Please model this.
Amino acid sequence: MNLFQSFQDALVKMYPSLSVFSDINWDELTQEYIASHDERPKDLEEFLFNFPYYLQDKAVAGDSPVYLFELAYFEYIQNQILSTEMEIPEQKGIHLNPTLSFLNLEFDINLMLDEATKGNVQIIQRPHILCLYRHPEMGFHHVDITTPVLKVLQLLEDGPLTSNSEIPVENHSTLKHLIDLGLVIEV
Model:
């Protein structure tokens, strides 16, 4: 198998939803993407990581729909989260889940993917912030970020808290909910 075919196969495997939501020509797109690099790509990980940004540049230039960039970036982050071992903090306290990744999306990627599995392929525009993460026991998850959730997550941003007494009382139920969801880990 030649290098071009290896890179193309890796792109198709990493970003399968792009074929569902567009009539993408993988041969052509892979050639364009490789040609956009100053030199022939050598590192497959970097090649795969930069692909969503290549699609973003194409969208800005009007050569690709914006949602393809968001789909690709979602799939890249999802694969990263699933392929990385989650390390539970050892220090006693209330911690942010170390796998959290936030996406500021213009399209409802989750709903689009869910509907596509039912045979209903559609583009659904809905601006929102989505948190992708690995639940300590149940694997990959995602949650829309609301203002109350964001407030609690920001309190944990600078490091773990020793107890929930460091959080305003009105945020205790949100904190408990975040612990139940696995976004926050209490050790």
